[in-house]
Amino acid sequence: MIEMKDITKKIGDKIILKNISFNISSGQFVTVLGPNGAGKSTLFKILALLMKPTSGTLKINGVTVNESGIALRAKLGVISHNSFLYDSLSARDNLLFYAKMYGLKNAERAVKEVIQQVGLELSYYQPVKTFSRGMLQRLAIARCLLTNPEIVLLDEPYTGLDQQAIEILNKVLKTLKTEKRTVLMITHNFEEGVTLSDRIFILNRGQLVFDEPNTYVLDTLKEIYLKKVGVFS
Ligand SMILES: Nc1ncnc2c1ncn2[C@@H]1O[C@H](COP(=O)(O)OP(=O)(O)O)[C@@H](O)[C@H]1O
Ligand SMILES: [Mg+2]
Fold it and tell me: Which residues form the signal peptide (predicted)?
């Protein structure tokens, strides 16, 4: 459960997010659409507890996020442009590091499982610095899955992925949906992005201009999107 109320983010004089409010119940899959600069990544960082809002409140599973937000982090799985991986470590050692940080039992086995899930078992002992963008993103997905997070947040996860990685990501997202995890995914990719989605947000110029259940066919949604953000945005 995510409860966001009147979240505003200012950087200097600039208002990046303005009075954003929504509740996302457990098991819901939300897709966030919006043009470049709309504030999507800023919203993502606030939800991922990587950035503090200027005002407003955020509760995760009923717990208000404040300085003690660290404990909540274990409940969150995060996939973004920053893979949070260490270059010189192997795929295995990167994930073992996280597994130990989160105090996972049977760390070695858990690591093996998620690495298989994303099809990287042949690169198990390979340093991450030799990985392609697609491989890195697959490992980032594995890292996210390692802690069995209740809530998964993704910021443009399709960017730069090859076809194989896209299919792995789609499969993982499907599994998350089947397992009734809460998912919030930011994407530019209408086709991939809304297939699994229960609910659509459109963010424009720092404001949540659309928040509806996903009952639309793709073409209707595209029309709505263009109306909401302006055709030439
Ligand atoms: N650290 C920052 N300092 C100043 N402006 C920023 C900063 N981060 C983001 N912005 C501005 O906030 C707006 C929203 O950015 P962002 O959240 O990255 O948008 P999106 O992910 O939707 O493209 C943009 O205009 C961007 O230039
Ligand atoms: Mg962004």
Answer: none
| Phi-psi map region of 99: left, alpha, beta (phi>0 left; psi -120 to 50 alpha) | alpha
Report the candidate in 37, 30, 3 with the shortest Cα–Cα distance to residue 154: 30
- What are the distances in angstroms from CA 211 to CA 17, 122, 152? 16, 42, 19
Q: Where are the domains of the chain?
A: 85-146
How far from the centroid of its chain's Cα atoms is residue 58's Cα? Answer: 17
Q: Answer whether 17 contacts ligand 1 (Cβ < 6 A).
A: no
- Which ligand does the CA of 206 lie closest to? 1
By percentage, how much of the chain surpasses pLDDT 70? 97
Question: 16: Cβ below 6 Å to ligand 1?
Answer: yes
Q: Is 160's C-beta closer than 6 angstroms to any atom of ligand 1?
A: no
pLDDT tens digits, 100-152: 888 888 999 999 999 999 999 999 999 999 998 889 989 999 999 998 999 99
- CA max distance for the chain: 52
Distance CA 143, CA 83 (A): 9
CA 108 to the chain's CA centroid: 25
Please report, as a single letter, which amino acid is at residue 64.
T
Place of tokens 């297939």: 195
Residue 165 Cα to ligand 2 middle (Å)? 20
pLDDT tens-digit series, residues 156-197: 998 878 888 889 999 999 999 999 999 999 998 888 888 899
Ligand nearest to the CA of 18: 1
Q: Give the model confidence (pLDDT) of 29-69 as tens digits.
A: 999 999 999 999 999 999 999 899 999 999 999 888 876 66
